[in-house]
């Protein structure tokens, strides 16, 4: 069918186009180079979620607070947060453990015409100090954190979040019903085919990601967030097996 939405001048994701020995998926230089095309063609709703992060940040960012984009990759959600903060006196920090991603992120941050400084840190988000936060974003990041470390991370974020502050959590999820899981997975694969990916590309990328991307059910996410200290957890966006949640800490 071909990609209906290919943008001129954008590096095309062909990393899994040829048969290869599939290893663990890594956010290396080759992925960073094609990442904007990869995520747009792989994650349904990504181009909706990013501008809505700006809207949510505009609503919840508080002067004098810290805002974090944990797992910032090339900075799409960081830039959305930057514009949502506007002229408020906030400290904005983007964190990613991939040096290749941070290097390209610095480039995009520099190109963005906005006066708010952005601090970028190349480190594991599990090691990032978090304090006095009004808005924190994990945009398809938690799914790459080891499952036995996720509660610890959510607890640290919740403890550091100011009353009335929020966490924006976007994730690929799995479903408790095998039938729904099968249907939603098939629809996701059709989305990829509609965007020009071949069956070989879909299969090989899925095999690579299965080793590092561990999805959970919506119920598991809700329970963890409530246990961490957030008072409300709501889904504000879903398309197939991809969701974005808003976790709010009570005043």
Automatic annotation (TrEMBL):
Residues annotated as transmembrane: none
GO biological process, any: tRNA wobble uridine modification
InterPro entries xrefs: CmoA, Methyltransf_25, SAM-dependent_MTases_sf
Pfam families: Methyltransf_25
Transferase recorded as keyword: yes
Alphabetic keyword roster: Methyltransferase, S-adenosyl-L-methionine, Transferase
Catalytic activity: prephenate + S-adenosyl-L-methionine = carboxy-S-adenosyl-L-methionine + 3-phenylpyruvate + H2O
CDD domains from the UniProt entry: AdoMet_MTases
EC number: 2.1.3.-
One MF annotation (Gene Ontology) recorded for this entry: S-adenosyl-L-methionine binding
Binding site for S-adenosyl-L-methionine: 46, 71-73, 96-97, 124-125, 139, 206
Domain Methyltransferase: 69-165
EC top class named in words: transferase
HAMAP family xref list: Cx_SAM_synthase
Self-association state and partner proteins as the record states: Homodimer.
Role noted for this protein: Catalyzes the conversion of S-adenosyl-L-methionine (SAM) to carboxy-S-adenosyl-L-methionine (Cx-SAM).
Stated family: Belongs to the class I-like SAM-binding methyltransferase superfamily. Cx-SAM synthase family.
UniProt name for this protein: Carboxy-S-adenosyl-L-methionine synthase
Species of the source: Marinobacter algicola DG893
């Amino acid at each position: 069918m071909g990609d209906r939405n290919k943008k001129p001048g954008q590096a095309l994701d062909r990393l899994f186009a040829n048969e290869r020995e599939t290893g663990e998926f890594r956010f290396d230089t080759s992925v960073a180079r094609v990442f904007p095309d990869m995520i747009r063609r792989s994650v349904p709703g990504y181009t909706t979620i990013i501008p809505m992060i700006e809207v949510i940040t505009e609503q919840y960012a508080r002067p004098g607070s810290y805002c974090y984009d944990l797992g910032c990759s090339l900075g799409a959600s960081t830039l959305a947060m930057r514009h949502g903060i506007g002229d408020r006196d906030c400290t904005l920090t983007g964190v990613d453990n991939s040096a290749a991603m941070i290097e390209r992120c610095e480039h995009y941050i520099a190109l963005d015409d906005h006066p708010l400084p952005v601090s970028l840190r190349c480190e594991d988000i599990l090691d990032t100090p978090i304090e006095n936060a009004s808005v924190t974003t994990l945009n398809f990041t938690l799914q790459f954190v080891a499952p036995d470390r996720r509660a610890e991370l959510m607890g640290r974020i919740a403890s550091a979040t100011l009353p009335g502050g929020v966490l924006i959590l976007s994730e690929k999820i799995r479903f408790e019903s095998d039938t729904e899981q099968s249907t939603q997975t098939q629809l996701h694969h059709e989305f990829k085919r509609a965007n020009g990916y071949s069956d070989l590309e879909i299969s090989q990328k899925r095999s690579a990601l299965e080793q590092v991307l561990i999805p959970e059910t919506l119920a598991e996410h809700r329970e963890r967030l409530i246990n961490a200290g957030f008072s409300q957890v709501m889904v504000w966006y879903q398309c197939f097996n991809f969701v974005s949640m808003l976790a709010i800490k009570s005043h």
